[in-house]
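Lecture 7 notes: from sequence to structure.

We start with a single chain of 171 residues. Read the sequence below before looking at the structure.
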Amino acid sequence: MHRAFAATLAALACTAAVATLGTAQPASASGVSYMLKNVATGKCMKGNSSRAAYPDDNRAYDVTMVTCNRNDVNQWWGYISGGTIVMTASTHDTGICLSVQKTPSGDFARGVYTARCANKPYGQKFNTGVTSNYPIGSASPACYVGHYAGGDSWPACYGNHGSNTRWNWVS
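Now the structure, written as tokens:
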């Protein structure tokens, strides 16, 4: 009798665990959303978090630099272990990642975009720390995301780094 009861409880626990895992959504490693504010210019990154704007894997949108606005869902980002910076739209992951175009090769300024995560033409792995005054460096292509002048309306990814490539992760 006790064995049958224990087996039934174990089966129920396994069923509940599978149901929970099946409905889990990908999330930032910390579960926290941040605004990415450039240390040198004081502007924040703004992407496009609308999933409908990405009908296929090849679409990408420019990231722009704007006055920080906590009410703008397109200014919220999360960090997933392994180096992915994903748009969170304040409360959840969107499947849209910070991206840098991989080709052509060479040492020149590259555009910074939002694209579906795992979009192959784009580098979406970054070396960074979720902290203040820390650079965001792309591993492939090798460059640092920066905002180089207060009047620029977009960030770029360059081979060199300095105060313009440092970001505050504002929660």
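The domain at 26-170 is CATH 2.80.10.50 (Trefoil (Acidic Fibroblast Growth Factor, subunit A)). Keep this in mind for problem set 3.
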